[in-house]
């Protein structure tokens, strides 16, 4: 009987100790510094994206669809002659077909559009191909970074950001009277801080056959931010 009572008391004390431990608030961290640093690398845009478009209008949907298909097929045939992975990739874009209404809400015709996208790193190949396509017009032109160029540039910017973070942490630690620091937590993120892709509208028929559509790429800045906290010591 005494043994049972002793076990009950031990169990009670263990439960009380557990509850007490759960109610104990951990002390707030002391001498913790939050900071952010960044690294920026400016690089020439090496990716060109040209969207060729055309629209058709007719009294019935079948005619519009047939005309759009014919225009797109002809453009695809011409574009694929020069296609090369990474240098000139060819893909179809948006295809739309919708009714046209009168003021009374009745359908009095159909209209539609189709797109072909030329994208890659070989600017002359892309612009010359666009100039040879006569069934579609150049709708817009965009510039950016290829996957390879972006990965390389982000790595460079990341190294700069990390070094800036370490230097800043050391300077602040000494400024507050500490000899150094240890890293607690850190996050790294990258973004393109350069200009938005250029958009331009041009008519393919304004260029002679086989002439390249004029384009000019600019530069963009790849920015990597490093933020986190350090323990001063």
TrEMBL record:
The keyword Signal applies. The keyword Cell wall biogenesis/degradation does not apply. Keywords: Signal. Coiled coil: none annotated. Residues 1-21 form the signal peptide. Pfam families: SIMPL (PF04402). GO terms for biological process: DNA damage response. It comes from the Bacteria. InterPro entries: 26kDa_periplasmic_antigen, SIMPL/DUF541. This is DUF541 domain-containing protein. It comes from Variovorax paradoxus.
